[in-house]
Amino acid sequence: MTATAPLAGRTALVTGASRGIGRAVALELASSGATVVVNYASSAAAAEAVVAEIAAAGGQAYALQADVSQEEQVDGLVTAVLERSGSIDVLINNAGITRDGLLMRLKTEDWRAVLDLNLTGVFLCTRAVTRPMLKQKRGRIVNITSVVGLTGNAGQTNYAAAKAGVVGFTLSTARELASRGITVNAVAPGFIATDMTSHLNAEGLLNAIPLGRYGEPAEVAGAVRFLAADPAAAYITGQVLQVDGGMVMG
Ligand code: NAP
Q1: How far, in Å, CA of 182 to CA of 140, rounded?
Q2: Are 126 and 70 contacting, i.e. CB atoms less than 8 angstroms apart?
């Protein structure tokens, strides 16, 4: 890792980094020089494996458990990062779940679980890092939404509502924090091959993807790194960058 790496000396908190897209983002940010905080909910071994992989490549990382849908746990997480690293320069709000079901049969608990993590979790983490970022007069926040939040999807009213909410939250936060040197953007993946999508019937979906294949977590991570880095993305805020193989255009 060279001192000229774009994220050298920066601390990046990635929520839900034990698996899937979050894991790929953690590896990518670490390879750009950041010290990465690998947050997870329950997969301690997987999170430690991500930390070990980063260390083996010459990077720096540590794992911290927290359910980011819970206010006290989020505040504890951010406090722990500040105590250990002294700053939080980059926040990637990635943790997310699905609880799919057609609207008429959707259980209220499944509605709430998805909104609690996928939208309220983004709010809680962003609010918690705002004070340290304001003090630093510098910060990069990237929220992982979904093309489903832009188009809707039958069977995913809860998930699409949360992800559309993340878009509105991103635009509003970007406006609030712009004058303080903090940028806030979103990345909207299409169909990415992870545990989240492994149970879906992929055959039909391929026809809707102009590039003719699913995305890889690393391909989302590249877009996230770009938005997190200085100076490349310093003049970009309030944007939603789609990484979807052309699924949603225009
Ligand atoms: P995934 O493979 O299922 O991984 C989810 C990650 O979130 C895991 O690291 C998990 O930790 C963590 N997590 C779950 N509940 C949590 C909680 N309460 N607190 C903290 N962390 C929690 O999912 P993915 O496909 O990588 O998705 C990552 C993000 O991309 C999500 O926001 C998702 O909505 C979005 N996205 C995904 C796709 C796609 O096609 N895959 C498309 C668009 C958007 P544990 O391992 O500890 O459970």
Answers
A1: 6
A2: no
Does the CB atom of residue 186 touch ligand 1 within 6 A? Answer: no
Q: What confidence tens digit (pLDDT) does each residue in 49-83 have?
A: 999 999 999 999 999 999 999 999 999 999 999 99
The residue whose CA is least distant from atom 39 of ligand 1 is: 192
Q: Identify the domain containing residue 28 by its residue range.
A: 11-243
Domain count, the chain: 1
Is residue 212 in a domain? yes
Please work out whether the CB of residue 18 comes within 6 Å of at least one atom of ligand 1: yes
CATH number, domain of 140, equals 3.40.50.720
pTM over 0.90: yes
Our answer on whether the CB atom of 196 is closer than 6 Å to any ligand 1 atom is: yes
pLDDT digits (tens, 9 = 90+) for 76-127: 999 999 999 999 999 999 999 999 999 999 999 999 999 999 999 999 999 9
